[in-house]
Amino acid sequence: MATRMFAAAETEPSMRAIANEAGVGIATLYRHFPTRESLVDAVYQDQVSRLTAGTCELLAELDPPAALRRWMDLFGAWIATKNGMLNTLLAMIESGEIAHAHTRTELLGAIDDLLEAGRTSGQLRTDVSAEDIAAALIGIFTVANSPQHEAMATRLLNLLMDGLRPCTCGQPTAAECGSARKLDQ
After folding, report:
1. DSSP per residue over 63-112, as a string?
2. 58 neighbors 114 (Cβ within 8 angstroms)
3. Are 15 and 39 in contact (CB under 8 A)?
4. Tens of pLDDT along 55-110?
5. Counting Cβ atoms within 10 Å, is residue 128 exposed (0-12), middle (13-18) or buried (19+)?
6. How far apart are alpha carbons 184 and 173 in whole angstroms?
7. I want to staple 175 with a disulfide (CB 3.0 to 4.6 A). Which of 8, 18, 82, 127 is the partner?
């Protein structure tokens, strides 16, 4: 419930509003989450776990490109969740309560698992890194960061996926073009 509220909120919802939405009393909420930070941490860690652990499940159900594309949607939902807890989350990162570098490593590992499965199957390019995908996703969800931009986010994610498929038209890959430019210099 808190996850949905954080995702839908433009500003941080109050603990009372979260308790009301969950259908529990404020005392019950505080008994489980004594501070706003403890609730934000629980939601944040749950979302990171879902993103990282979910890659195996996605790959068991879908081919690598479809699994990666579905993971991108899940990543977008994770980014949206942070909207309503951004101030608290940033303060927690600043104070060291949440290890941003550890989360980044976990997310890059999940992306790399998906990319490696696609490389192995020949369905995804071999010259793309997890960092490339993460940067592209952050760019997409920065530009298309609200529900009214959902169609734009979908189009941009589909374009990204098209660019991740191996070229079969005889055109050089980005890595090959970069190598050719270096040789010309």
Report:
1. -HHHHHHHHHHHHHHHHHHGGGGHHHHHHHHHHTSS-HHHHHHHHHHHHH
2. yes
3. yes
4. 999 999 999 999 999 999 999 888 877 777 877 887 888 888 877 778 889 999 99
5. buried
6. 17
7. 127
